[in-house]
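Quick start: read one record
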Amino acid sequence: MTTEYPIYIDGAFVKTGNELTVTNPFDGGAVGTTWLAGPDDLDRATHAAEVAFKSFGKTPVFERVELLKALAAKLRERRTDVIEIIVREAGKPVGEATTEVDRGVFTIETAAEEAKRIQGDIIPLDLLPSSKGRFGIVRRFPIGPIAGISPFNFPLNLALHKVAPAIASGNTIVLKPPTLAPLTMLLIAQLADEVGVPKGVLNVLPMDRTTGDKLVADDRFKLLSFTGSPDVGWDMKRRAGVKPVVLELGGNAGVLVDDDADLDFAVSRIRTGAFAYAGQVCISVQRVFIHESVYETVRDRVVEAASTLRMGDPADSSTELGPMIDDKAAARTQSWIEQAAAEGATVLTGGKARERFFEPTVIENANPKSFVCSREAFAPLVTLFPVKSFSEGIARLNDSEYGLQAGVFTNRLENALTAWERIEAGGVIINDVPTYRIDHMPYGGVKSSGLSREGVRYAIEDMTEPRLMVINRLESQQLDGGDAA
């Protein structure tokens, strides 16, 4: 009998008539049972978030800090259980799942600290004679119920990047976790309930696409925060109405290797950045532009490094490359590589599906317009290109409709600064891969890669609105004989 994970609405765990069995990508075995919410369930959760906001929005800072600290402590206490469920429902190697849970604790703890730093401004307004005696105070207020939609690839931490800042800023949230990996956040809902998060503040509802569309368009939500594919995200923005939208949409992240780079370090980081979690990461390394003077050396080392990756059971601590999330993901990766090869690309290593596993793949001479270069592959593959100069590398890297993060390996300060100024991305990581992230930094993209930024402090800014109060010191006017228009 599999473990049951009821959905969480208004402080209660409930079941619906639509049962969902979550399976392990590695062996197909049942991980647990949950239920899909229908339109009535979503309406009830949305109403609960509305009602809860009326009181939670006025909660003093110290109470929100205590709730978040308690949730972080509870997650740390249940660390092993959460790691296990991520491994089993997402097929994530246990080492990477462990890192995700530890990052999750850090994200919640950071939210507790940022709750103390939601600050405003004092603004002098007496810049004209008519404003004598006036000054302004700007304070940030929570905006109201938030709709959050999170993906399967980081079932804990990407969801917490919506939940933790919402609680920190005094908002309520209805979260749609991924249907392929919903159990992690349903377990977090249990932990939130145990530490006393007020009813209606957090609602976690797996749901199908049709029901999820209602969440996107509902004007009762004051912000939509979505992490997922670009096509889906931009379509959601078109349907979201007047509410603000935060989009973190991934891309085809690029790396530039200069002729003076530390090549051993660069290759080791490209190995990690391209193949971690079978490439199913928004900032996975997909395109590498290498100065022609070191191209062959880097190419051969990347191929060698890829061939040493250990595929296997994600629950085995020695496994580096686990399965893809489902059969469709492996099949479409195979088709894209075959298409690239037909267009003249050379597959240097890998390139084959082994049921749900996909071999770590290195490609050169690919057509820049082919899918493996121009779109988000979300797979364990990397494409290599020689460039004649650092400047050409930047231009080739920018030749993309995406711009989430980029990595640059160079030991020249001038080149690092030039890359920062000229690369069209939300983040430029010097001497590391674009896959680097720590959870308090601003994170998001430009062009088709997204809108606004995540990272706890920056998410709080989107989840609060500045409100001005103007004070007119009448006593000052009377004493000075001032007159205001």
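The longest helix spans residues 94-115.
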